[in-house]
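Board notes, transcribed. Complex of a protein with adenosine monophosphate.
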Amino acid sequence: MDFKKYIRDVADFPRKGIVFKDITPLLQSNFALKSAADELLKFVGDQKVDKVVGMESRGFFFAPWLATQLNAGFVPVRKAGKLPFNKISQTYSLEYGEDTLEMHADGILKGEKVLIHDDVLATGGTSSAVCKLVEKLGGEIVQCNFLITLDFLKGDELIKEYPIKSLMHY
Ligand code: AMP
């Protein structure tokens, strides 16, 4: 199936010079939504997963669903200041700007198998920060799983020690 038909390029969003990959057409189509979710799940295969970690905010669309399918828990990673309890943090750089990500300190137990999911792998700054958060807590990353990879930004190089899967490549 041609998932790219459901991705809308929005020029100059959120800043001039950025071509934003808008996944809302994919989310709006029942067929594309279900098919994409199934493909993301197939990427994991029969690997054991204890926790699925999803990044604010577009990582939240699929990560909790993947967790229920994998009999795993869901752990949100959020921007600084949003999580209420004891947390760990990691600063990272984005395709547009710099920020800090946080995760609850009890989100992952030592030795747990972790699937990381986000909508887009761009420069890799976000995902590599999330991998660091997971490893600080002693989690073992089984896969980093994306809808879209922007190959020309070479984000995969920042997370090259982990298996990476992506439904679409640009
Ligand atoms: P990066 O840290 O550069 O890999 O950026 C990844 C994060 O930023 C993801 O959470 C994406 O949601 C978002 N992002 C970065 N670039 C784009 C883009 N061109 N289109 C849509 N989302 C993007």
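The first strand starts at residue 8 and ends at 11. The mean pLDDT is 96.
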